[in-house]
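ENTRY TYPE: paired fold submission
RECORD: A
CONTENT: sequence, then structure tokens
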Amino acid sequence: MCGIASSIPDLSEEELRNWLALIRLPGVGPATLNPLLRKGITPAQLLTQPPPRLSERMRNPPWELVDKDLRWLENPASHFLPCTSPDYPETLKRLPDAPLGLFVLGQAQNLRTAQIAMVGSRNPSRGGAQTARDFARHFARSGIAVTSGLAMGIDTASHRGALEGGGPTLAVTATGLDRVYPASNRALAHEIAGNGALVSEFPPGTSPRRGHFPRRNRIISGLSLGVLVVEAALKSGSLITARLAGEQSREVFAIPGSIHNPLARGCHRLIREGAKLVETAADVLEELAPGLESFILAPEPDGAEPPASARQADPQRQQLLAAMGYDPVSTDTLVERTGLAPEAVSSMLLLLEMEGHVSSEPGGLFIRAQTDTAS
């Protein structure tokens, strides 16, 4: 089988071909097809018995392009996640215009981790680029994946900071994953694929087009718990991402700057409109903490929030603390000792650090606080 996600081994090649054909149909997108797919109608049914209003547009899928997509998926690092896959991110799946499927190059499991989006100017100040790099490094060391758009400027600085912090970073592209835009970020894209994932709703062979970038931006915000804008002019595309985040009920954060800096004006506008002003990465993490618990604790049967006492007594949390001891230890070691999922360990470590039970050390290590009595 092609590089299809391991959690859906029963997806036959014919079913995969049908999914790819849906995505390749010209003029038929998520807004049209999602309501039908969510009723349980399969891609095969849509292609063989399309609704009358869609029959003309769905009559002749470009099967030759589907065959090219299948060849791209023969690479073990290449994946396709249809919106019905359990590996498809829940945060994105809830959107009415969620992509029909995602092409992924790299480690597809990283899409299920807690993420913070970072966006900003393509031509930032030196200080702005350094700020983005520093924030992303802190997020990565705290167990939060950094998601951005692989553009020059703040996007690039954010990806690099996350890689320096030893955490995964996800790059959502406005092209097919067989090409890199801008080309100057080719080496960075390869590094991201090896330490995170490249993600796109566009099939291989898709070139960059103006209308693709807003579509990419809704995925960047849709994957994330919140969006941080580092530097942005008043007409910056980053403000589109921030607006989409607000519409998706995501947190929006902005870093203020000098009133004389035109690249700060977009952030100042966001703050006036209700975005949270932040000065440190810790400010962001404090706001995101409630949302992080959904990556650790299973929801109550009635959907109610577990009480604080239940969170304190969570057995996985106690298992993690017991596995730490009082010597510096890496996340990988804790995953090995506990058998817990890497994303669960990372999220729990973040919450424990914010509560003062553990602290982070250089080199991506964690150590239990000497005065900790959480167990």
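RECORD: B
CONTENT: sequence, then structure tokens
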Amino acid sequence: MTAAVLWALGSTWYLISEAVAASAFPNYSYSHDYISDLGAVREDPLDERRIDSPLAEVMNLGFLHQGLFFLLGAVFLARALPAGRGRPAFLVLAVVHAAGNGLVATFHSGHADDVSAALHPVGAVMAILGGNLATITAALLLRDHAGTRIAGFTLSGIGLTSLLALGFATTSGTSLLFDVGTWERGSVYAITTWQLVAATVVLTTRCSRTGEVPVLDRQAEIRR
């Protein structure tokens, strides 16, 4: 249950941070512009754009909290599950996702220095790829929650496909059916949407069971 609350908080915080930062950014487009633009104040040497996000700190905090809450939720979920091969892999992928978000929040794209230019795209791939693969692994681990499993497989498929399309569009300089902003959000929102779905399923299941007779009491009634 703690994992569900943390995932709900992390994804909601992230989406609100993005919306708030975008509302203060003149002419910002969810479909055309990168999410990272909301967390940057820079001159972009690649296309000579000046990116000046008035609420860059809000977006960067959103990145950090998403990664942190996702990781904390993964730790609590792993502790509640029996030991198995999938649990360590899930935790490693959650760490990759959290570390990637931390790099994105710290090193902004388009800066002239080599460190930021190298670490920002690495962080973005870590956050997106790690999050989507963690979603698949969690879906495999949550065997008792059919809705969460189906959502995990479906959304991670959308997320990974969007990541591939984003990579192609970025490297080729051509839009592949949709603009880069849409593909990037497809890869990111697949993770946050699954967090919300998983949290909703777990919490509603928990609430529905609160009115049940405890197992020991039911056994006593059967004996009588």
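NOTES ON RECORD B: Residues 2-210 form one domain. The helical segments are 2-23, 56-80, 86-106, 114-141, 146-172, 180-209, 215-223.
STATUS: closed
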